[in-house]
Amino acid sequence: MNENTPPVAAREHTVESFTREFLRELNFSQGVDLDRASDNDKYLALAKTVRHYLMTRWLETLRNQYTDQAKTVAYLSAEFLLGPQLENSMLAANLDSIAAESLRGLGIDIEELRGVEIEPGLGNGGLGRLAACFIDSLATLNVPSIGYGIRYEYGIFRQTFVDGKQVEKPDDWLRLGSPWEIAHPENAVEVHFGGHTKKAHGGAEGARAWLPDWHVMAVPYNYMVPGYRNGRVNTLRLWSAKATRAFDLQIFNEGDYEEAVRAQTFAENISKVIYPEDSTPQGKELRLQQQYFFVAASLRDFLTNVLPPDYPLENLPNRVTWQLNDTHPVIAVPELMRILIDERGWDWDKAWGITQQVFAYTCHTLLPEALEVWPTDLLGKLLPRHLEIIYQINDEFVDQVRAAYPGDELRVRRMSIVAEHPVRAVRMAHLATVAGFKVNGVAALHSKLLAEKLLVDFAQMWPEKFTNVTNGITPRRFVRLSNPGLSGLITEAIGDGWITDLDQLSRLEPLADDAEFRRRFREIKSSNKVRLAGVLAKRGDIELAGDGMVDAMVKRLHEYKRQSLKLLHIVSVYEGICSGRIPLDSVTPRTFVFGAKAAPGYVRAKETIELINAVGRTINADASLKGRLKVAFPANYNVTLAEVLIPAADLSEQISLAGKEASGTGNMKFALNGALTIGTDDGANVEIRKLVGDENFFLFGMDEPAAAALQASGYHPDEFYESDADLKAALDMIASGAFTGGDQGGAVTSIFADLTEHDRFMALADFRSYLDAQAKVEAAYADQDAWSRSAVLNVARSGFFSSDRSIRDYLDRIWKAKPIDQNA
Ligand code: GPK
């Protein structure tokens, strides 16, 4: 940086100049006067004002990126669940107080404007949110990096409830304007599909010509990714599909106007909507189109725009790591091979040698059904050249396996990238593992199980490829912004260094024994509950149980996560009260908060939502329980709501069957905001418990080996149903129609039957242990002072879960890229 360049936003870093900029935006960009401006006008003007302040640094970062040609992390992800942008941008640019003061001076309530913002829901859940936390940390750690993804015109659906049933509505997030993106149609790149291949004339040995039969344009939309007050503004580049003119011109010339418009729609469908399946891919052709679309555009962009012309691609491994966020972008592997061989004229071995050094793969699951598999019929139709390349990669790989394990044909079949049954199909996780120079899981237990179970053959063959990077969350958004009360208290105690160095939270540890500190901590928790109550009242007339315990289970609705186990607990308490087994005044006042979207085609998950709502309706309507028990299930849980809910929570429910949740990241957010966890020995819960201490964590249930053993020995849920009277009473109460107006059919029958007959994730086996742990929760909560001590210790000991630490681990273990300080 040259000496005359001002630090971030310093150019006009005053309330007066901010006000001037804001009014100018309002007048000249929105075209309205202040007294005529709508909240949306004011929001857009504010967003653009903030954007201006970051712009110089963005341009500078881009310039440096080009001149330095430093090693760059290119994070390829089909999802970036960004959450609202305004506050985070103001915070990063150090404009938060100036903006607030400026608007106050104009008589504008900045809180109101925040309420106008529609978050870009370009992700399903944990995986997409992780990508958003990671780009935040990459920027804050000064790592040259680019995020690449898809600009879906419709994000994850807006969930509504009609008679307690989930009804999905389109998420038209762009309808009121999108001030955080800058489109560059002039930089659009072509992406090809379909057709066939033939022998290339000339070119390298093995090169083929691909004659695609259709293509679309990928238009880049750039988003700023500001580091926290460090002068770096990285880029997130999301691609939007646009029909090419050539495409429809031909049809126009044939005189078919309607067909031409239809063709255009077809092309633009590619980035129309995010697939709402989390951990359960459906193998749809459009989904593969999306994947290739963004990956091809991103590789092209990097090779031609980020690298200088004539850059020697032999050097690529020193210049970039393409991090594959799950299997969604794995088609990048044959795409790079195709570019190197067919377009650049390299021979196969040289191309494969480089390809194997530039991709690394993150796996996010332990469920075999979550691993993407593409039928070769479909793949060959859409990407014929890529299928040929995959076959060749596989041929060589299979030879390698045979050489390493002579005679072990079963192993060859297990490991093959191409599966033969039930249909011939490409296993994308195998392709990623073969091509990637590293494969990582997302929590210690997950990485261990990946290497011992899901990808065991590969880990035996290449043990050094496998590593762990435990997930993390950004403390900027999930503590500093979402919990201003707690942030203030922490900063008062230890200064504000924790915001970028979360290990400093350990300095709070002695304060856990300071009664005054605990009192203030409790006060903040209560006012966060008041804030939550306000939001829930507005959002759907939802009431909390006074200022009682806030017990939260928020995550996608999935059987393995076991919302049904949580429901059995609630029903058991209610049944106990109704039957007189549990004296009402012994029950801890508490609100059970749920937040969960179900994939639209996932019937069991939708039935579970229906049943939770039915139980909630019954309990909430029972006047004798007022102030004592409530079930709060706000529709459409998203990042915006998470930021209000998590700071208010006392208890964090992390109750998946051990060995099924890869990591979890909500669990980290709750601990960092001073909620205690009730959880199984699963995913990152294991690491949380180790750090916060057993006495500050409510562990229950089978561990992974026990669960695996029970499964192997033949699990019979009916035995648990028959032998545990409380469990039986709870299940029978559901079956009786007590929550469904006497209706014993529908969701009631199918959930009852499923739990008592199959119960794939063994909720019944863990029920008793879960109830016991809940009893310990109640006992512990009765001593508020001791509880807050544990809560403070949870905060003090969870610094490890910063995504800054995750990114440092990725740098050390995988990327080997170096931070570059923009101010140096
Ligand atoms: C895992 F496989 C998938 C998926 O399709 N979507 C998704 O959100 C989650 N995940 C895991 O379920 C979580 O345990 C994990 O914390 C998160 O990815 C981020 O790694």
TrEMBL record:
It is an enzyme of class 2 (transferase). It comes from Demequina lutea. It comes from the Bacteria. One of its GO terms (biological process) is glycogen catabolic process. Pfam families: Phosphorylase (PF00343). Signal peptide: none annotated. Allosteric enzyme that catalyzes the rate-limiting step in glycogen catabolism, the phosphorolytic cleavage of glycogen to produce glucose-1-phosphate, and plays a central role in maintaining cellular and organismal glucose homeostasis. Belongs to the glycogen phosphorylase family. Gene3D superfamilies: Glycogen Phosphorylase B (3.40.50.2000). Its EC number is 2.4.1.1. Transmembrane segments: none annotated. This is Alpha-1,4 glucan phosphorylase. Its cofactor is pyridoxal 5'-phosphate. The keyword Transferase applies. It catalyses: [(1->4)-alpha-D-glucosyl](n) + phosphate = [(1->4)-alpha-D-glucosyl](n-1) + alpha-D-glucose 1-phosphate. InterPro entries: Glycg_phsphrylas, Glyco_trans_35, Pyridoxal_P_attach_site. The modification N6-(pyridoxal phosphate)lysine is found at K669. One of its GO terms (cellular component) is cytoplasm. Keywords: Carbohydrate metabolism, Glycogen metabolism, Glycosyltransferase, Pyridoxal phosphate, Transferase. GO terms for molecular function: glycogen phosphorylase activity; pyridoxal phosphate binding. SUPFAM superfamilies: UDP-Glycosyltransferase/glycogen phosphorylase.
